Amino acid sequence: MANLRLRVGQFSHRGRRRANNEDWLGRFQPEDPERLADKGSLFLVADGMGGHQSGELASRLAVDQVIRHYVDAPGADVGRALRRAIGVANATLYSQSRRGSEAGVGRDWGTTMVAAVVRGADLWIANVGDSRAYLLRGDRLRQLTEDHVLGPDSGVGLHVITRALGRKPDVEVDIFPPLRLRTGDRILLCSDGLTSPLPDERIQALAGRYPPQEAAEALVRAANERGGPDNVSVVLVEVTEGGSATPLSTRGYLQEVWDSLSRVLPAEIRQRPAWVLILALLLAALMIIGLGFVLGLVVL
């Protein structure tokens, strides 16, 4: 099965109200074709809890553990490897917390986790907590994960996470059946610092408007403009060719051209929709060609 071509953007910020950033991002994309065919590409977002440096350490340790144990897992079952790797990360966090408690220096830490694996043309998703995965296909944004929280109607608080890594000896991991990807699909992983201040409609508009890196930065910026109540982190993965739909279209080719040009354009120009600027560039090129044709006739 051929591997997809992916473009990836990611960005993380502490937000407007937090002193430090307890989120952590991770990514494993092997260059070796055989390893890529075997393991695919792995992307992770973890939202640490515990305050001060505990949350940051928890999220970073969890991401490192998941990558290591996923990569080392035997067999070709992606879902099973993800579940095992996240389980090992949970056990590591819990064990370290317990050892610290016995020594009088224990940490009340934990972390959420959302993971995506793209292997061949298939997408696997795993999650624990309230960090989310979305699929943007065309103009439709679909949440793929379920939040493990108690809402305001529960009577126990405004937002209580019911599952997290590091809080108990074992953790239940949601593994979702693989989805077939298409050219143009975008996979969005994020912490709740994005989804709390922004409605899905706004997330959809920004996630599909720009190239992946610019889109990731725009999403984080929009969350901060709405108050930035928490750390906010985004990983955005775009399927640019090789999916189950048609190969890269003319629109996709023009998007590639725009992505190259956008690197040298000022930020205020990059904020405009890409198709508008591509159309303007094409019109300018046609005008130059037309002018050259007219001048050629004059010379003749």
Helix content: 40-55%
Radius of gyration: 22 Å
Biggest beta sheet summary? 6 strands, antiparallel
SS strand fraction: 25-35%
Order of helices and strands: EEHEHHEEEEEEEEEHHHEHHH
Low-confidence runs of at least 5 consecutive residues: 245-275
Overall shape = globular
The CATH topology name of the largest domain reads: Phosphatase 2c, domain 1
Number of strands: 13
End-to-end Cα distance: 58 Å
CATH secondary-structure class of the largest domain: Alpha Beta
- CATH homology superfamily name of the largest domain: PPM-type phosphatase domain
CATH architecture of the largest domain: 4-Layer Sandwich
Could you say which structural class the secondary elements and strand pairing correspond to? Answer: alpha+beta
Total helices: the number is: 9
Mean pLDDT: 84
In short:
This protein has 300 residues and is of the alpha+beta class. The chain has helices spanning 33-39, 54-72, 78-102, 192-195, 200-207, 212-225, 250-262, 267-270, 274-299; strands at residues 5-13, 23-28, 41-49, 110-111, 113-119, 122-128, 132-137, 140-143, 149-150, 160-161, 174-180, 186-190, 232-241.
Care to describe what's here?
By secondary structure, this protein is of the alpha+beta class. The strands form three sheets. Strands 2, 3, 4, 5, 6 and 11 form a six-stranded antiparallel sheet that branches. The protein has nine helices and 13 strands. About 10% of the residues have low confidence. Strand 5 and strand 6 form a beta hairpin. The chain has two domains: 239 residues, PPM-type phosphatase domain (Phosphatase 2c, domain 1), CATH 3.60.40; 52 residues, no CATH class.
